[in-house]
Here is the input.
Amino acid sequence: DTLASKFHLSDALTVRNKAPLRTCTTIVASDCATELVETSGEVSGEEMEELNAKIDELTKENGKACGVCIMGSMPPGCKEDTYADLTTRLAGVDTLVLIDSVIGLTPLLSALKTIF
Here is the structure.
């Protein structure tokens, strides 16, 4: 049994980005750790369109996600309201929304007010 099948995970919203893979290096000491993370590659308009088409397919007939996680920095090429737009399209009143980002937070919080 793979984790994907065991927990009913899907890659239905996965869009492979053409940007090179970035490197994250963690330097660990006895009492602390530091992460060195390269900047993300740019997300193209075509890649965002592909993601939006996948969301449209999954949410047609008014379907909503059980949970939405907004995590980390928004990659170059995305508009400031990208997280707000994605959350508005995916989340309903019963959706658990987890946010671990300060990027695009103002439009995201405004969007959440309209959902909840």
Observations:
- The chain has four helices and four strands.
